[in-house]
Each structure stands twice: as C-alpha cells, then as structure tokens.
Amino acid sequence: MEHILYQVPPSTPIALDDLEDATIRRLDLLLSLQGKESTTYNCNIDKDVHGHFGLRVVFAMIQASSAEKTDMCEWFIKQETLLLQQRLLESIQPRRDLIRDMLQALDAVSYDEEDNNLLVPFQDIPFLVRSRSVILRSGVAHIPLESRHAVFLVAHHARKHFESQLEIQARACCVHPASFELERLYPLRVQVEKALQDALSSRSFVSSSLEHIGDKAGLERYERCLPLCMRYLFDKLRHDHHLKYEGRNQLRMFLKGVGFTFEENMIFWRSMLVSKAFDKKYAYNIRHSYGLVGSRFDYEPWSCATIQNLPPPSAGQFHGCPFQRWESEFLKRQLLQYGGISTTTASQIASIAATEAPVATCRLYLAQRFPRAAPTAVAEKLNLIDHPNKWFDLARRCRTSD
C-alpha cells in the first residue's frame, strides 16, 4: 500500500547514477500516458519508488525556484494521478480490497462493511450525483467498491495527496536551497526539464494534408466535425461572449492543436470575448500556452484524459467531457440539437454513456456521426482516438468521404 501511494520515502541506499536512471525511466513512463502508448504500468517496486521520489524531488526543486507552482509541477501531479488510476484499473489484485485500503489510508471516506459500499458526502462528488450514478441516503452517496467510480474517487483523493507531498518537499528545498545533496541533483533537474519540453513540444496534432484553420469562419465551416465537448464550448462562447477559466483553457488548447498560430489564437479570442481589459485579463494566458512567457513551456493540446481529470464544472462552467459529466437526458437533447444522428441513436449513445468509458462512447458517436464514411478505414482509426484533436482530424476526413 505504501509503495502505491508513496507515503514513505525509500530507506535503501542507491547510487546517484542508479537514481538518475530510475528517475528518467519514471519520466518516460509518465510521458507514455500522454499518448496512451502500449506499456507496462507495473514494474520492480524498488525502482518504481526510487523513480517516483527522484522525480518528486526534481519537481520540488522546480517549484521552490518559482514564486508559485509551475505548470510542470501540475503536469507531474496529473500524470502520477493518471498512472495510479491506470494501475488500479489493470490491477491483478482484488481491486475491492485495494481501493478500500487506499481510501482508508488517505482518510478519505467511510466504509459500510454490510453492503461493501464506500460512504461519501454528496457534495464531494457532484458529477456522480448529477448523473445519477450513485445511491443517495441522507446526503451520503453509496459507491460500490467494484465500480469504476470507486477508482475515480481514489484518483481524486490521491491527487490531493500528491499535491500536498510535493508542497512539503518544495518547502524543504526552500529551507536548504544550496545543500550539497540538491546541488548533486541539479544536472538531473536540467535533464528532466529538457526531456519533458522536447517530448511534449514534438507532439503535433495538425495534419498537413488538411486545410488550415485559423479563425472563427474556419471553425464554423467545419462545425459539424467538432467533438461534442468543443462544439458545446464554441457555442457557449459565441452566445455569451464569455467562458470561465477552465473552459477557456480547454478550447484554447484545442485551437492550438487545430493549427491556430499564436497570433490567430489572440485574434480569435479578442474578437469573441467582450472585455475592455482583454490584454490585462486574457492575453497572458494565450502567450503562456505557446511558451512565450512564464515558464517558457510550449504546451501540448489537451488529451481526453487531461480533460476528464479537470475539476467537475460548477454553475456557469461548461468545461469537461460531456460523456463523463452530463446527465443522460441533457446529453440526448444536445446530440439531437447538433444533428447528424437519429433519435434512436441519440438515446442509445446517452444510455451507453452512463455505463461505458467516456472515450469509448465518444468514439461510438463519431462512428454514428459519419456512417457512410469508409467503414474499414474509420474502424481502424477509431480505437486510436483519445484526443479531441484526433477526433476532429478523423471527422474532417470522414466528412470528405461521407
């Protein structure tokens, strides 16, 4: 249990070269989650623990040298959370006992031994309550240990755990900023930062064989090819001339993946947002997305996993994955409003979304959206769709052959 949550640092000695090797291997493992590459998520426990703590110290050094938590540190926390979630989903151990023990170790929830349910205050899981995915009794949600919702609940609390542990480590680095031990790790920090920047900046979602899109008119021309999450955000932005923080980030990074240059992204948002203080309130975040200010990190467009890991939307927020967050009836209405599928198909998709993984349901929606496109070619690529920009790219190709 301790090695899964990394609550206790390793006590066995390790040579500096071996620590560097374990840390870089850990970084490679976290990077593999970005593209959902086929890999083994379980490995030698000692190397796994040393690799995690090696990376934790490196990112703590990065955070300690900044006035606030950097986006690299956010990436580290997010990827560690995704790794833990993936390991739970693929665990060969009895998942029920593992989940129960982890949540109790995190002091996160209560447990009902009679019906093997986790007991969670309803306000802690608004997205599950809203989608009617759990049973409520006296304001307490009952979540079966065998359900995938229990895994997501573990990931939610584990993320908070990783955040607090990184903050503690960063404070320690601030207290001893020039210690000999940290100086010895400086070359490793440089290596990690460079490897992370190179790996993420090299990922491209823009297909050279498709028409360039760089403005509102181009998006509207291919509006029916937008994935549901982005079309909904685009609609809300056009109607309200406003999106809250997470929604702006989600759509802005998608536009970057579509092929919008920095200048085109600036022009788009300046024309869409009603704000006299655009340069003061919004321009910095756009520059930041392209690595022009701040940490100078050229961020990649957000994957489905990243979007699904966002905080649940509250009132007035529209970010996130519709197939994960929306109630069945609302999902059905939106699918019909955007057209391209029958009432029966919309009902089937809404029903499937309540039980299946969001990415799988989104792939089904794409297949039903363009039924006359070359079936074999679409089927071969559908299983690779784990990113809204990949969805958009394939939808544009399907539209051509539909």
UniProtKB/TrEMBL annotation:
MF term (GO), any: metal ion binding
One Gene Ontology biological process: DNA replication, synthesis of primer
Protein name per Swiss-Prot or TrEMBL: DNA primase large subunit C-terminal domain-containing protein
UniProtKB keywords: 4Fe-4S, DNA replication, Iron, Iron-sulfur, Metal-binding, Primosome
GO CC annotation terms, alphabetical: alpha DNA polymerase:primase complex
Domain (DNA primase large subunit C-terminal) ranges: 223-392
Source species, domain of life: Eukaryota
Cofactor dependence: [4Fe-4S] cluster
UniProt source species: Aphanomyces euteiches
